[in-house]
Specification:
- With 231 residues, the chain is an alpha+beta fold.
- Helix content is 45%, strand content 14%.
- A four-stranded antiparallel β-sheet has the order 1-6-5-4, sandwiched between helices. The chain has a two-stranded antiparallel ribbon with strand order 2-3.
- Helix 4 packs across helix 7 (197-206).
- The longest helix is centred in the middle third of the chain and has 25 residues, at 77-101.
- The chain is globular and about 50 Å long.
- Mean pLDDT is 79; it is low at 1-65.
- The protein binds heme C.
- Heme C (HEC) binds next to helix 4, helix 6 and strand 6.
- Heme C binds at residues 35, 97, 105, 108-109, 112-113, 116, 133, 135, 138-140, 143, 181, 183-184, 186-187, 189-191, 212, 221-222.
Length: 231
């Protein structure tokens, strides 16, 4: 593919991302419901959302590094794109999860286990970001590898008005973004304290070292992280 063609492809990919971020903001993407309910304002804090909210979030945040803002207080475009990539992975995984749950939670475990990596790889390709999920209580050992700044977020989550909030920074030629994944009602079936026996049996078989149950609604289940080269 020529450089021009690849630029065009990247540009249309970004346009699609922007459209997705916009539709998520107004709740068109149904699977955001439920998943975000316990997260309170977490999803609304994304700087991809309305400018009034962006203003409020920026004021609440105080330090510019938290939102990858420039010294003048403007959102840093590369950090914004890294945040948009985290939004896209969240959205893609939730969409697939919600569809799979219609077949029942046991079937959905199988879908998550078999498809999460392919969805992650597709979003990485589309956004150009290195991207993944991680947690302090891991289920899938493949999610253990994560950058130092993503671990820092887990240890000390960024909060705005008490709710987990997205965080980003721009360091030299790279932007880093972390989006919280709060435990919502939907998540409890597979990550809560009382996982139904057939689901538990499926999990035991696939993840003998599973540390991702016992979460309560509102707990930070994990994060999506993304790193982007800015040029
Ligand atoms: C149907 C069962 C099921 C439901 C419901 C579910 N998960 Fe998971 N979750 C899994 C499985 C299986 C994995 C391991 C496979 C993978 O990497 O996705 C996983 C992995 C994860 C991971 C990656 C970190 C790790 O532990 O490996 C995060 C973060 C996560 N889930 C968050 C959530 C959140 C937030 C919700 C609610 C919106 C949710 N999950 C709902 C089954 C589920």
């Amino acid at each position: 593919m020529s450089a021009a063609a690849s630029r065009v492809r990247r540009a249309s990919g970004l346009a699609a991302l922007a459209a997705l971020a916009a539709s998520a903001a107004i709740g068109v993407v149904g699977c955001d419901e439920g998943a975000d309910d316990a997260g309170g304002t977490a999803a609304r804090e994304s700087p991809a959302r309305g400018s009034a909210e962006r203003e409020a979030a920026r004021e609440a945040t105080e330090t510019s590094a938290n939102r990858g803002a420039t010294a003048a207080g403007e959102p840093e475009p590369c950090a914004e794109r890294a945040l948009a990539a985290t939004d896209e992975l969240k959205r893609a995984l939730k969409t697939r999860l919600m569809a799979a749950m219609r077949e029942g939670p046991d079937a959905a475990v199988t879908v998550c286990a078999d498809e999460a990596e392919a969805i992650r790889a597709r979003v990485a390709e589309e956004t150009g970001a290195r991207i993944g999920r991680t947690s302090e209580g891991l289920r899938n050992p493949a999610n253990a590898a994560a950058p130092e700044w993503a671990r820092r977020y887990l240890a000390e989550p960024h909060r705005v008005d008490g709710a987990f909030a997205p965080w980003s920074e721009r360091v030299d030629g790279e932007a880093h973004a972390v989006a919280p994944l709060p435990t919502g009602g939907l998540c409890l079936t597979c990550h809560g304290a009382e996982v139904p026996p057939p689901v538990q049996a499926n999990l035991d078989e696939r993840y003998p070292e599973d540390r991702a149950t016992g979460f309560a609604e509102g707990d930070l289940r994990g994060v999506v992280w993304a790193a982007l080269d800015c040029e």
